[in-house]
Write the structure tokens for this entry.
Amino acid sequence: MAVISFEMAPAQYRTTFGEESPSIGGEQIMIQPFRVAHRRAWMVLALVLPTVLVVGLMARRPLLRADSKTHNSGVPQPIWQSDHLWKKHEIHSVFLRDTSDPTSVQVALEPLEDVSAPDPLVYWSRELSGSDRLPTNSVLLGAFEPGKPLLLPETNTNGFLILYSLAHQSVVDTASLEGVL
């Protein structure tokens, strides 16, 4: 094997300050065009990324919420309760009617067993989607917190309660309200 020796330029430990640094063979490396291209790429990214973020936020589907007013003026009276309303989990469901507003119905949910879903949300919908996806016309009632009353959106409560895991993007459980109230 032949030994090939390369002569190396002396090491320089300083910045180039815009100068073009020499290569091993003594030819000049053209870094100025690379700097210009890099600067242009960052300028484009500085304009495009915030625009994409704003357009994405504006294009999101708004979350429908039930009326969030609390009914503290009257005493909620239980009108119906069940432990077997939900299909997959045992959740004690108590339906309440406020004495000051007899048209509003609230539901308080108390799990009797562990609901193995991270931060579930409770939705109400007139129909189910038939899959693990949330129906498009569902109304968010609130977070699934034991014993917390959630206001149903309509006086006609026929429909479905849906327990939904946002982290898993799937329906955890459903409860039919047909003929309940």
